[in-house]
C-alpha cells in the first residue's frame, strides 16, 4: 500500500546531481512526492533551487554511506560521483558510496518492501573487446553510457562540458589522445525516459540493461561539432591519452528496445545545441566580457596546436 494514499513518495539519492535533478523534475511533474538526498560532494544546490517552494519536494543533506530511515514507496539510487576527475579524486570514498551506500539503500528497500533502481555505468565494460557491448558481456543493473545535457557542471571534467566551456571562453580545447576513441552520448531527457521505463517494467525484469544512445562518435568528431556549433576561435591542445581510456564505447540497446520499448530520440547535434545554450546562459559574464568570439572577421580558423592538422583529419 502506498504510504501517502494514491500519491507516490519517491526517494532519489544523488538528487542534487546532474541526472538526479532531471529525474526529480519529471517525478514532480507527474505528481509524485520526492525526497531528495544528497551529500553535496558533487551535487549542487543550483540544480534544485527552482524546487525550493515546491510543496511536494523535500531535501535532506545526508551521505548514504550511513544508514537512512525514510518512509517511501520507491527508491532511485543515483548517488555517486560520475565524472572520472571526481570519482578518481577519493577512490576510497567513491568505493564506500558504491558499496556501503548501495547496501544501505538495499536494506531500506528490503525493510519497506519497495522497488529500487540502481544506477551503474558503462565503465564496467572496461576497454571492451566486444563491440557494441551487450549486457551479458560483464556486470549488472541499469548502465548509463555518457549522459550529457543542461546542469552538468562546468568543472565536471567530462568531455562535453569541458569542450563547450573551453569553446565558449576561447580557451584551448583539450583533446586527449588521437581523437579516434569513440563514445556514444545520450541526451539527458532520453536517459530519464529510460530510467522511468525500467522502474515501471514488470517485477520479473531486473536488468542489467544498457541505457545509452546507439550513435557512435569519435572524440575528434565531437570536437569538430562543438567548434562548429559554438563558432569558437579556440585552438586544439593535444594532451596525452588518459590511462585505461576505453578505445571504443557503444551500447547494444537491443534489450532496452525489446523489454522497455525505449530508444533515444535526441540527436547529438540537437542535444549539443541545447547544452551549449545552457552553458552560454551560465557563462554569460565571460561571453559578454569578450572572451568568446564577437567579431566574425577576427575568427581564426581552428587548428590543432601541435602539428596544425586539418579539421578533416580529426573527424
Ligand atoms: N576527453 C578529451 N578532452 C577532455 C575530456 C575528455 O579528449 O577535455 C576524452 C577522454 O580522454 C575520453 C573521452 O573524451 O576518451 C570521454 O571522456 P569522459 O571523461 O567524458 O567520459 P568517459 O571516459 O568516462 O567515457
What's the quick description here?
The chain has 315 residues and is of the alpha/beta class. It has ten helices and 13 strands. The protein is globular and about 55 Å long.
Please give the largest β-sheet. Answer: 7 strands, parallel
Distance between the termini: 55 Å
Question: What is the radius of gyration?
Answer: 20 Å
Low-confidence stretches: 284-315
Amount of helix: 25-40%
Count every helix, treating DSSP H or I runs of 4 or more residues as helices: 10
Work out the number of β strands. Answer: 13
Class computed from helices, strands and strand pairing: alpha/beta
Key descriptive features of the protein:
about 325 residues, alpha/beta, seven-stranded parallel beta sheet, two-stranded parallel ribbon, 10 helices, about 35% helix, binds uridine-5'-diphosphate
Structure description:
The protein has 315 residues and is of the alpha/beta class. 34% of the residues lie in helices and 16% in strands. The strands form 4 sheets. Strands 3-2-1-4-5-6-11 form a 7-stranded parallel sheet, with helices on both faces. A two-stranded parallel sheet has the order 7-10. The radius of gyration is 20 Å and the shape is globular. The C terminus is likely disordered. The protein binds uridine-5'-diphosphate. The site of uridine-5'-diphosphate has 16 residues, from α4 and β8.
Amino acid at each position: 500500500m502506498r504510504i501517502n494514499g494514491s500519491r507516490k513518495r519517491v526517494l532519489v539519492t544523488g538528487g542534487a546531481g546532474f541526472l538526479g535533478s532531471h529525474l526529480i523534475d519529471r517525478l514532480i511533474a507527474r505528481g509524485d512526492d520526492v525526497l531528495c538526498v544528497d551529500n553535496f560532494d558533487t551535487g549542487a544546490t543550483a540544480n534544485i533551487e527552482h524546487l525550493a517552494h515546491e510543496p511536494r519536494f523535500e531535501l535532506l543533506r545526508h551521505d548514504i554511506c550511513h544508514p537512512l530511515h525514510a518512509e517511501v514507496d520507491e527508491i532511485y539510487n543515483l548517488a555517486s560521483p560520475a565524472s572520472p576527475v571526481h570519482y578518481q579524486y577519493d577512490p576510497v570514498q567513491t568505493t564506500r558510496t558504491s558499496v556501503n551506500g548501495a547496501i544501505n539503500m538495499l536494506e531500506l528497500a528490503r525493510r519497506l518492501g519497495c522497488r529500487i533502481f540502481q544506477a551503474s555505468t558503462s565503465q564496467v565494460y572496461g576497454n571492451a573487446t566486444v563491440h557494441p557491448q551487450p549486457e551479458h558481456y560483464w556486470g549488472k543493473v541499469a548502465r548509463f553510457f555518457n549522459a550529457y545535457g543542461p546542469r552538468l557542471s562546468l568543472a565536471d571534467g567530462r568531455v562535453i562540458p569541458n569542450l563547450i566551456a573551453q569553446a565558449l571562453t576561447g580557451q584551448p580545447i583539450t583533446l586527449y589522445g588521437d581523437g579516434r576513441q569513440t563514445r556514444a552520448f545520450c541526451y539527458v531527457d532520453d536517459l530519464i525516459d529510460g530510467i522511468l521505463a525500467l522502474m515501471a517494467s514488470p517485477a520479473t525484469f531486473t536488468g542489467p540493461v544498457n541505457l545509452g544512445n546507439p550513435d557512435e562518435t569519435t572524440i575528434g568528431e565531437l570536437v569538430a561539432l562543438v567548434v562548429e556549433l559554438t563558432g569558437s576561435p579556440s585552438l586544439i591542445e593535444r594532451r596525452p591519452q588518459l590511462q585505461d581510456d576505453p578505445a571504443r564505447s557503444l551500447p547494444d540497446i537491443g534489450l532496452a528496445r525489446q523489454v522497455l520499448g525505449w530508444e533515444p530520440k535526441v540527436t547529438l547535434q540537437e542535444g549539443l545545441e541545447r547544452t551549449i545554450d545552457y552553458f552560454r546562459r551560465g557563462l554569460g559574464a565571460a561571453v559578454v566580457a569578450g572572451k568568446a568570439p564577437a567579431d566574425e572577421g577576427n575568427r581564426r580558423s581552428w587548428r590543432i596546436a601541435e602539428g596544425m592538422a586539418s579539421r578533416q583529419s580529426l573527424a
